[in-house]
Design goal:
The structure is a homodimer. Chain A is α/β, with parallel strands linked by helices. Chain A has helices at 26-34, 57-61, 74-78, 144-163, 167-173, 183-199, 229-242, 288-296, 336-354, 391-405, 409-425; strands spanning 17-22, 40-46, 50-52, 71-73, 84-88, 90-95, 100-104, 110-114, 117-120, 124-126, 175-179, 213-218, 244-248, 251-256, 259-263, 269-273, 276-279, 283-285, 306-307, 313-314, 317-322, 327-328, 371-376, 379-384, 387-389. Chain A has a six-stranded mixed β-sheet with strand order 5-2-1-9-21-20. The relative contact order of chain A is 0.15. Chains A and B meet through β5, α4 and α11 of A and β5, α4 and α11 of B.
């Protein structure tokens, strides 16, 4: 170890319990905030300096919002919370015996963090279901890097088409294939049609961007199947109206630089030429979760998640909570709301113990506050309990929900301003990108 | 050639003369605009999709402005100008005999563009004076990639320092060395001190970001020497007041991952540990200019520039203009203003010939409208003829000048809003960055 270990978190607080939170996403952020008035020292460890508001990543990828508009530095978020220290590092190990987390800096050197209580909220990454070779052809949609890569590929594809005379080749550049018709896939599909038919519609001389084809592939029978049959079929109608071509009930079996191959229900394989392929089909736990599972001697499911106790602790470890997308509990979905409530629950449990309350661990009860997906300008789906909204009403709800969770008043103001500019004529202010593949 | 050539630019205009402009920077952009009402078909060829407002690149690199706030898509800028076609491609060759430009697409395939008149405005890239090995340690400041790399390195350096106990190592991460004390170097130095003492001053628990050292190296006796002795010494005083350490009259002879070595006037070499080194020391013509010079059979100077005729045409080629940073004429500096006026001059000459006016080529006369450099909040230098401004008055002039040239009304509005937010408390909205080295 090059640089010596960090001895204790904070100074002059040997009597205070130490909480380490790994991951500054929705779960870790809400856990840290819930501990604001608890007499503990908190370390929030993350691989990135900023909390990413992932639900709007597709708007960054399509040139509507900047990276800064969908991110807030963890430090800025936490700097008034005096009992919390933010550290940049990738968790590399956990030792439950010595109660220590090991983390790596950007240069590969490591440091360690002692803990009394540990909350793990490291999240998922894109999964190619064992076909890692697809990744270079079909970027995922999980990180800012992904968003800038996709931004570059989308706008560059139209540029390529503009200079190419061969009709078949040109058609390949004007075809965008998206795997996965969950919210991310649907939102991307809608945005690409929106930008082709509005933003850049009149900017080319040779091609007509409005002819761009967007193909959406999914194994389910309909897009947004988690929203239930009624909203799902409304989404399908709206997408078709937008010009998105739905290939439901298909399985993508091959991807390369020229397109993808998908099989239908009868197993018949069809080749779809498309120079831009975007992969939103599946997720799996990040690599650290395997290390964690081994250290804690617990099982992982097929996607790498860890089944937790009813109070969200890891089996056999009453001071380690596993929350957010990487926890498996009652089939709860990997959405922001589950992570937030899980984070608050874990932090609440720690708070209770610090207060000396000795009753039984509290069972985590998830309150489903609903879900929402954006389809296109003025069209969104919202499901809140029995309430099902779509079209303009859904869109207004969607905007309110997303603004209320977007961190920081300036991010909100700037998103609203940008949306108002964009809604009128489809203008997008963030079409610039670094030239190289990220 | 995979994709067939583009036959003619535009359609049904066999009688119209064809103008090819290579480069969509200030020179190329002003040339294209000047040809708006001329009966020619214009192709504007660029390696990037957006015009970059380079004078504010340092504000993008330090997390103040987004990429979109300092860029405008060339297509958006030109799409109402019906005689102009924008194409994405890197110029790879010129054949003056057949009057053809060859360009490469992103995938390496090529296409060709016939021309009757050619304007070359491809600009300069960072030069390491033959020490290309410095580049990986010390990024330059010419492209959006550079800006995002520098943004990542600056903010990550503070993060590294926060987790490191060893005082010497920590000091290395808190030291930022900048080579070159021209406007870019001075502006970056000021911004780094601004962000350390304002933006992030209270966000850390272990380090005090205000202790960050910024070292500025230059071979000249004073920073901003091109502004003349009086403004130059005011700049030096202001930089010192900000906490920037000036190392004037030095030559940087080595750079590695741990810092740099510089020799002073007596040739004594001193090692300066600094984990972040940024290179703004020199520029050279991009690689294409060598190809061009060989094709036209003209000479390049030490930095790769081509000496041009008084009307800015290349020697021996009365239908080829070389403008902007890559032209050598009367020692004119490589600044935006020279490029803009050069672009308008070349386009004006083409216009005159199309009109059938047969008088002698007009000599290019540069009107120096002055220069400006930002030092820190409320401090900028402006030199307009005999007028020399600094401090707050200079800053107001600086803002007006930059806003008037920032392309597009929305970019202006959004820059003003951002500056107002930032000025009050040093807030920076664009601190997010992709994690990988670009």
């Amino acid at each position: 170890m090059l640089s010596g270990e960090l001895q204790t978190v904070g100074t002059g607080s040997a009597q205070r319990s130490r909480v380490v939170i790994i991951g500054g996403g929705f779960g870790g952020m809400f856990a840290a905030r819930r501990l604001r008035h608890t007499r503990v020292d908190v370390v929030l460890l993350d691989r990135e300096t900023s909390h990413l508001f992932q639900p709007l990543l597709y708007q960054c990828a399509t040139g509507l919002l900047s990276e800064g508009q969908i991110s807030t530095p963890l430090r800025t978020m936490q700097h008034r919370q005096r009992n919390t220290k933010v550290l940049l590092g990738a968790a590399t190990g956990v030792d439950p015996a010595s109660r220590t987390v090991t983390a790596a800096r950007a240069d590969g050197t490591t440091f360690s963090l002692p803990y009394d209580y540990l909350i793990v909220a490291v999240g998922m990454r894109q999964s190619y279901f064992g076909h890692e070779e697809f990744a270079s052809f079909a970027p995922g949609m999980k990180t800012l890097e992904d968003a800038l890569t996709i931004r570059r590929r989308i706008y560059s594809a139209f540029e390529m088409a503009e200079t190419i005379a061969n009709p078949e080749e040109r058609a390949g550049w004007l075809t965008f294939a998206i795997t996965g018709a969950g919210p991310t896939g649907v939102e991307l599909a809608g945005q690409i049609r929106d930008l082709a038919t509005l933003t850049i519609a009149r900017e080319f001389r040779t091609i007509d961007p409005r002819e761009a084809r967007v193909l959406l592939f999914d194994g389910q029978d309909a897009p947004l199947s988690s929203f239930g049959r009624k909203l799902s079929s409304r989404a399908a109608r709206q997408l078709i109206k937008l010009g998105v071509e739905l290939h439901m009930g298909t399985r993508v079996v091959d991807v390369d630089g020229g397109g993808l191959t998908a099989t239908d229900g009868d197993g018949i394989a069809v080749r779809y030429p498309a120079r831009t392929v975007i992969w939103t089909a599946g997720v799996e736990a990040v690599a650290f979760v395997r290390t964690l599972a081994e250290a804690l001697d617990v099982e992982q499911d097929r996607t790498g998640r860890i089944a937790v106790n009813p109070d969200l602790t890891a089996p056999g470890h009453d001071n380690v909570w596993i929350i957010g997308d990487i926890m498996e509990r009652d089939g709860l979905p990997g959405v922001a709301e589950v992570a937030m409530q899980g984070g608050m629950h874990a932090a609440g449990e720690i708070h209770r113990r610090i207060q000396g309350q000795s009753r039984e661990p509290e069972v985590f009860r998830y309150r489903d506050l609903g879900s929402a997906a954006y389809i296109s300008r003025f069209h969104a789906l919202v499901k809140v309990g029995p309430l099902k909204l779509s079209g303009l009403v859904g869109w207004v709800f969607w905007a309110v929900i997303h603004l209320s969770f977007l961190v920081g008043i300036r991010n909100r103001l700037s998103a609203v301003t940008t949306w108002l500019f964009a809604l009128s004529r489809g203008r997008r202010m963030e079409r610039a990108f670094p030239q190289r593949d990220l």
